[in-house]
């Protein structure tokens, strides 16, 4: 008598199998969905498209080694199209409809802040791979890019040094949104603490997609007449192309007015004649040009992947800092899931603390045990004719992030652990 229900269930399963429904159910159960939330159109596509492709390459790499918890990772890619409110909508879609276990994405801080309430409300997990202004430490975000003390502050200290040109005046040029404005608030306080006068600091902002830098570059030249000047650029997206072209048009060279950029790397320089820009600077935690076995393989794998997938301009693809941060973040998340034995967000969060990974930068990076940020090296590179960077300065070891900058009043009273923003 007991065999009849078993027989019925077996026949039912066979019917589902023949109908084609059962294999789909098995497929859904056997994969772990991973969200990829990057602008593939609009002003930020120049920077973010490569992060999407790097995420897909990393997922393929993990799958080729057996996946995570014996399951294959399945990428769910969405395009918020450089539309900040759309990031929140697409993030909610990934969590509620696509049921992703984790999301890798965002570039601008305004996009991250757009999705943050959604991920905190729904207890989602976001890995954010780009340098940013700090002043945030959410339990639902792991920050694999640099905090200000891992990029902006060391870069300005370099500009103040003899090796960096001993600048006395600072022209802060940025795109008009939260990251440049907050970073420059921190840098202004830092500069004043070092004895730089208010009259020797100029701040200018342009909208996303801005393309006419003729007047601004002329004003930089005029400002530099008052003393040794450096430009600190937090210009984001495709506006970097006309900005650098205008520097060349007006004959500004690095030996006259050095520019240090926080959002320009190898990818942004791909579309620019870099010969007039030789010697200009960028501050990051990784450059493609660093020499070590891990990076040699990383760069070779990326170039092979680009050709295999017929990516645009596959013969000239490059790696950069946010791509490395994406790669590290996905691998660290996979390690944490294996350690936790589940994709449950609360358990993965705990398993992330103290995770390490031998990164292409040549350093072993560690996820801090309390503040959700990576310990990262700091590097300053000079633009070369081929669009690569020669590292001219770097820290001797990874630096612990300070999400709450000591140069903003009241931050010393804030906790050194993640708390929800709302």
Automatic annotation (TrEMBL):
<dbReference type="InterPro" id="IPR017777">
    <property type="entry name" value="ABC_urea-bd_UrtA"/>
</dbReference>
<dbReference type="Pfam" id="PF13433">
    <property type="entry name" value="Peripla_BP_5"/>
</dbReference>
<feature type="compositionally biased region" description="Basic and acidic residues">
    <location>
        <begin position="410"/>
        <end position="422"/>
    </location>
</feature>
<dbReference type="InterPro" id="IPR028082">
    <property type="entry name" value="Peripla_BP_I"/>
</dbReference>
<feature type="signal peptide">
    <location>
        <begin position="1"/>
        <end position="28"/>
    </location>
</feature>
<protein>
    <submittedName>
        <fullName>Amino acid/amide ABC transporter substrate-binding protein, HAAT family</fullName>
    </submittedName>
</protein>
<feature type="region of interest" description="Disordered">
    <location>
        <begin position="403"/>
        <end position="422"/>
    </location>
</feature>
<keyword id="KW-0732">Signal</keyword>
């Amino acid at each position: 008598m007991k065999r009849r229900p078993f027989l019925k269930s077996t026949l039912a399963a066979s019917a589902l199998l023949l109908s084609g429904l059962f294999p789909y159910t098995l497929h859904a159960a056997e994969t772990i969905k991973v969200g990829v939330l990057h602008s593939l159109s609009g002003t930020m596509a120049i920077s973010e498209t490569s992060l999407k492709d790097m995420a897909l390459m990393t997922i393929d790499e993990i799958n080729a080694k057996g996946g995570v918890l014996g399951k294959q990772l399945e990428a769910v890619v969405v395009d918020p199209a450089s539309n900040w409110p759309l990031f929140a909508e697409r993030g909610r879609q990934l969590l509620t409809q696509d049921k992703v276990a984790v999301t890798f994405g965002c570039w601008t801080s305004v996009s991250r802040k757009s999705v943050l309430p959604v991920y905190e409300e729904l207890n989602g997990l976001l890995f954010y791979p780009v340098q940013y202004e700090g002043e945030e430490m959410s339990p639902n975000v792991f920050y694999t890019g640099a905090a200000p003390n891992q990029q902006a502050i060391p870069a300005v200290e370099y500009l103040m040094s003899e090796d960096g040109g001993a600048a006395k005046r600072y022209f802060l040029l940025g795109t008009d949104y939260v990251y440049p404005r907050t970073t420059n608030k921190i840098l202004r306080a830092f500069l004043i603490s070092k004895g730089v006068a208010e009259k020797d600091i100029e701040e200018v902002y342009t909208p996303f997609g801005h393309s006419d830098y003729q007047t601004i570059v002329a004003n930089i030249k005029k400002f530099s007449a008052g003393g040794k000047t450096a430009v600190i650029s937090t210009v984001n997206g495709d506006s970097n192309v006309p900005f650098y072209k205008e520097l060349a048009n007006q004959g500004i060279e690095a030996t006259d007015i050095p520019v240090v950029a926080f959002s320009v790397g190898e990818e942004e320089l791909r579309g620019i004649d870099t010969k007039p820009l030789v010697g200009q600077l960028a501050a990051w935690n990784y450059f493609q040009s660093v020499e070590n076995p891990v990076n040699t393989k990383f760069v070779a794998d990326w170039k092979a992947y680009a050709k295999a997938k017929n990516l645009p301009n596959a013969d000239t693809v490059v790696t950069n800092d946010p791509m490395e941060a994406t790669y590290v973040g996905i691998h660290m998340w996979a390690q944490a899931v294996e350690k936790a034995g589940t994709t449950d967000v609360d358990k993965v969060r705990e398993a992330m603390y103290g995770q390490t990974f031998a990164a292409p930068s040549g350093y072993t990076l560690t996820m801090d045990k309390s503040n959700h940020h990576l310990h990262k090296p700091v590097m300053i590179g000079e633009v070369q004719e081929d669009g690569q960077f020669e590292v001219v300065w770097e820290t001797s070891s990874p630096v612990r992030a300070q999400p709450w900058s000591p140069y903003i009043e009241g931050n010393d009273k804030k906790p050194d652990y993640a708390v929800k923003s709302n």
